């Protein structure tokens, strides 16, 4: 065995210690908290992310990778407010259909090239180009970019898209509609820049470690699909000095119980809460079991199309079924994850949305039950003539539990004979999309933090309106809301119409639940879209 | 023998072709497609994507293009779900993992199962027999979806000896729990089959003759009992080996191994057609190959069998 001289060994130890604590072992520049030596953030993914390509990504976990590896024109802070990203700011005309972004001159790609307006032009054209076949190219459509329809259909070349670089640091975007919230849309991963030279050189392989070039706070250094991925800080990122977390590691753990066990064993900093276990874990780990509202609604939709059951065309029956559904049983007994009872389709957490005091939401459950019985009797259904309906959901233990509870409530309160049917996910989507159901389960998460992302679903032209609800006033209110600077009144009115017409039964608003180690700080709980940027996180010393 | 092998390979090709055609049609007849989602894509976007992947072509055209790609370039197509990855890459990554933990599970299953069954048979109706049978029944009734989380709780959470999952290139620490969880039920089946077939052989007339001749027990066992009593075990081992090395979705889920089993099941749910086809072809080919190997082993063990 070789022995190092004692002084040399000590020097080596000290050098290693110093090298590993270049960014750490200090204090947080804003809060002054003592930082941990090891700034590695490890979290679990229930499933492998689809891709790290900004223009191809379509899943939540993939978007998080993209936000770390690339940076768009604008970012969000911990509360979801818009802050500068690659752009230092923007101006817009009075009609709000031309936006001009000014880019910072110190933004660099991880290979040293400067980030320019041309990189955004390339990326947005790439998003809309039919040859890219991006599953998110529809985002270019809802951004209302000039000529986007013609580009998507291949009638015009991608160069016709309403985006151009006035010079290296000035980007102009032309829209076909007035969009006051357009700048906020540039925080979406699909609008982030792409390095043309890398995409051209490597083709579909360009996002692999060793090849990928990004302009974000991190670079992808390792990726073993379905097992792990590592991103490490990008020394060329313009705001690298403010980044604290050095390394972000993901572990794919497909089972939430195992996920939790591995969190308990200290393998991850953020892990899953197995379904139904939130109350127990909250009691056991009060600071680390987290629950917060999300922009999502769980609902049942009635089939109001000609193929739908006749009884359900009667608004009284729909109201009765909605009233008799005791939301508190679903949230407090079945789910137990701090979910919020829903009486409106739009979650209360949505920005600029005041939950209207819809009448049935103000009643007690006993009052609702009494009213439901009355309505059902008026509609001609009762013990002698019970209503039979089929409730369809996609195969999952969670949906099944809720459906059984609902079946029981309807049976006890209204004597309704509900049968339950479940189908595998894609089959279910086909069935629901083809209006082959009486009542079907639905879940909807907002694409952006604004009520229209929910309420547009219930307009006549919406492709997502599987119940085929159609109401001229709703269509008109939602259409005029698009160009209003404050459409709160319209949204309130739409919710009131929905509470009367009851095309869907809102059941609950989702909450995000997970385990988060209490030395990890900076998690943006107030950002309801949960747009997390790892560079804003940090670990404090124990 | 050579003629037999050539004949079997001659049958294998059309078998595989039928498998491909049937799977292809079944897969495409399942409702929904790779790009069906809660938020349906606008028609134009869907059309662009389908054109890129050739999904707008008639099924027969898609199938012939697919087969042609395999034959000419050994290209099994792209994954529709993981945009920057091809099926060749997915199988290239997942199969070696599955092969490794499957192979070791196989070794453990026969290494423990056969001696356990043999001892039980030789010491029939003694405590050793009861003990061995007890273990094998216990292992059989404890399904791996129960055993896997238990192992993680014991070895990772309580004892802290082993990592709770992952693969790390197949380091032994990452291999132990998947192998235990996967091999136990196979080990139990092998032990039971070995025990019953060995008991049958031990009662055969020629063994009585051997005993009457005064041959030592050891000689009787190794020369006359062991080989013939393995015949039923071997017929079980062929399909079991294929099952083990082509992956267990539960092992992949619980231990995050990144193996092929999860990809296969996931591909079916995602309608990731090319991934599903690629793995089907691989599993189909292996099944055909190993049933041929088992048949050849039969001939080696039992001289009465000649091809």
Topology:
The complex is a heterodimer of chains A (542) and B (307).
Chain A lengths: L5 H15 L19 E6 L14 H10 L4 E3 L5 E3 L2 E6 L5 E6 L13 H12 L9 H5 L5 H5 L10 E5 L2 E5 L7 H4 L10 H7 L15 E7 L3 E6 L13 E6 L3 H9 L5 E3 L5 H7 L4 E14 L12 H9 L3 H9 L4 E2 L17 H4 L2 H14 L9 E7 L2 H18 L2 E7 L1 H9 L5 E7 L6 H4 L16 H10 L6 H14 L2 E13 L3 E2 L16 E2 L3
Parallel strand pairs in A: 1-10, 14-15, 14-16
Antiparallel strand pairs in A: 2-3, 4-5, 5-7, 6-7, 8-9, 9-10, 11-17, 12-16, 12-17, 13-17, 18-19
Helix pairs in contact in A: 10-13, 11-14, 17-18
Chain B lengths: L1 H28 L13 H11 L5 H15 L13 H36 L4 H15 L2 H15 L13 H31 L2 H9 L3 H13 L1 H15 L3 H7 L4 H11 L2 H29 L6
Helix pairs in contact in B: 1-13, 4-5, 4-7, 4-10, 4-13, 5-7, 6-7, 6-11, 7-9, 7-10, 8-9, 10-13, 11-12, 12-13
Structure description:
The complex is a heterodimer of chains A (542) and B (307). Chain A is an alpha+beta fold. Chain A is built from 18 helices and 19 strands. Chain A has helices at 6-20, 60-69, 117-128, 138-142, 148-152, 182-185, 196-202, 256-264, 278-284, 315-323, 327-335, 359-362, 365-378, 397-414, 425-433, 452-455, 472-481, 488-501; strands at residues 40-45, 74-76, 82-84, 87-92, 98-103, 163-167, 170-174, 218-224, 228-233, 247-252, 270-272, 289-302, 340-341, 388-394, 417-423, 439-445, 504-516, 520-521, 538-539. In chain A, the strands form five sheets. In chain A, strands 11, 12, 13, 14, 15, 16 and 17 form a seven-stranded mixed sheet that branches. A four-stranded mixed sheet of chain A has the order 1-10-9-8, with helices on one face. In chain A, a hairpin with a 5-residue loop joins strand 4 (87-92) and strand 5. Residues 1-24 of chain A have low confidence and may be disordered. The termini of chain B are close together. In chain B, 77% of the residues lie in helices and 0% in strands. Chain B is an all-alpha fold. At the A-B interface, helix 8 and helix 15 of A face helix 2, helix 4, helix 6, helix 11 and helix 12 of B.
């Amino acid at each position: 065995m070789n022995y190092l001289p004692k002084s040399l060994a000590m020097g080596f130890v000290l050098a290693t210690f110093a090298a590993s604590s270049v960014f750490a072992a200090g204090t947080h520049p804003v809060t002054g908290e003592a930082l941990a030596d090891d700034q590695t953030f490890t979290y679990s993914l229930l499933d492998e992310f689809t891709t790290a390509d900004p223009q191809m990504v379509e899943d939540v976990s993939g978007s998080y990778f993209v936000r770390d590896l690339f940076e768009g024109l604008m970012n969000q802070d911990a509360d979801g407010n818009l802050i500068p990203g690659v752009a230092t700011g923007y101006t817009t005309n009075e009609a709000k259909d031309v936006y001009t972004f000014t880019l910072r001159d110190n933004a660099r790609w991880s290979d040293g090239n400067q980030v320019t307006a041309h990189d955004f032009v390339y990326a947005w054209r790439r998003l809309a180009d039919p040859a890219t076949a991006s599953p998110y190219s529809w985002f270019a459509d809802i951004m209302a970019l000039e000529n986007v329809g013609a580009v998507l259909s291949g009638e015009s070349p991608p160069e016709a898209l309403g985006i151009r670089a006035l010079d290296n640091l000035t980007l102009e975007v032309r829209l076909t509609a007035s969009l006051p919230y357009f700048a906020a849309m540039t925080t979406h991963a699909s609008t982030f820049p792409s390095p043309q030279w890398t995409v051209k050189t490597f083709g579909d392989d360009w996002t692999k470690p060793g090849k990928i070039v990004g302009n974000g706070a991190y670079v992808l250094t390792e990726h073993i699909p379905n097992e792990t991925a590592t991103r490490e800080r990008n020394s060329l990122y313009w705001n690298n000095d403010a980044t604290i977390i050095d390394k972000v590691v993901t572990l794919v753990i497909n089972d939430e119980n195992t996920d939790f066990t591995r969190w308990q064993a200290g393998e991850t900093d953020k892990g899953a809460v197995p379904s139904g276990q939130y109350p127990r874990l909250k009691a056991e780990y009060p600071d680390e079991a987290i629950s917060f509202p999300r922009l999502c609604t769980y609902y049942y939709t009635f089939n109001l199309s000609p193929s739908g059951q006749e009884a359900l065309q009667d608004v009284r029956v729909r109201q009765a079924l909605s009233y008799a559904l005791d939301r508190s049983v679903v949230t407090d007994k079945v789910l137990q994850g701090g979910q919020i009872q829903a009486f409106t389709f739009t979650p209360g957490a949505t920005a600029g949305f005041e939950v209207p005091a819809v009448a049935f939401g103000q009643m007690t459950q006993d009052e609702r039950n009494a009213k439901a019985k009355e309505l059902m009797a008026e509609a001609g259904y009762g013990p002698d003539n019970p209503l039979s309906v089929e409730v369809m959901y996609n195969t999952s233990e969670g949906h099944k539990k809720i459906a059984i509870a609902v079946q029981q409530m309807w049976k006890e309160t209204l004597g309704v004979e509900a049968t339950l049917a479940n189908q595998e996910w894609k089959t279910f989507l086909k069935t629901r999309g083809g209006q082959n159901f009486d009542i079907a389960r639905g879940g909807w998460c907002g694409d952006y933090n604004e009520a229209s992302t929910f309420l547009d679903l219930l307009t006549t032209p919406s492709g997502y309106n599987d119940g085929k609800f159609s109401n001229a006033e709703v269509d008109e209110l939602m259409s005029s809301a698009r160009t209003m600077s404050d459409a709160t009144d319209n949204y309130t009115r739409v919710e009131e119409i929905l509470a009367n017409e009851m095309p869907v039964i809102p059941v609950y608003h989702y909450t995000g639940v997970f385990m988060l180690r209490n030395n990890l700080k900076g998690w943006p709980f107030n950002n309801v879209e949960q747009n997390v940027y790892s560079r804003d996180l940090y670990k404090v010393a124990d | 023998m050579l003629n037999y092998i050539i004949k079997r390979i001659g049958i294998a090709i059309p078998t595989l072709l039928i498998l491909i055609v049937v799977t292809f049609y079944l897969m495409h007849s399942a409702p929904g497609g790779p790009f069906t989602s809660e938020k349906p894509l606008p028609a134009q976007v869907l059309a662009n994507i389908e054109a890129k992947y050739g999904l707008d072509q008639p099924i027969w055209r898609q199938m012939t293009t697919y087969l042609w790609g395999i034959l000419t370039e050994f290209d099994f197509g792209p994954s529709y779900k993981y945009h920057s990855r091809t099926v060749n890459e997915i199988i290239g990554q997942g199969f070696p993992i599955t092969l490794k933990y499957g192979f070791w599970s196989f070794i453990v299953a026969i290494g423990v199962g056969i001696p356990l069954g043999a001892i039980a048979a030789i010491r029939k109706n003694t405590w050793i027999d009861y003990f061995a049978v007890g273990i094998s029944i216990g292992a059989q009734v404890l399904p791996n979806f129960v055993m896997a989380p238990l192992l993680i709780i014991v070895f990772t959470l309580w004892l802290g000896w082993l990592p709770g999952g992952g693969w790390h290139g197949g380091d032994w620490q990452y291999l132990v729990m998947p192998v235990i969880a996967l091999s136990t039920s196979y080990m139990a089946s092998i032990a039971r089959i070995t025990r019953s077939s060995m008991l049958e052989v031990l009662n055969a007339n020629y063994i009585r003759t051997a005993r009457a001749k005064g041959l030592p027990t050891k000689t009787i066992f190794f020369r006359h009992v062991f080989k013939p009593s393995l015949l039923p075990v071997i017929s079980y081992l062929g399909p079991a080996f294929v099952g083990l090395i082509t992956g267990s979705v539960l092992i992949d889920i619980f231990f995050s191994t990144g193996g092929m089993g999860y990809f296969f099941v996931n591909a079916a749910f995602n309608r990731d057609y090319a991934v599903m086809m690629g793995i089907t072809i691989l599993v189909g080919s292996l099944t055909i190959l190993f049933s041929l190997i088992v048949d050849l082993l039969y001939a080696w063990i039992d001289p009465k069998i000649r091809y």
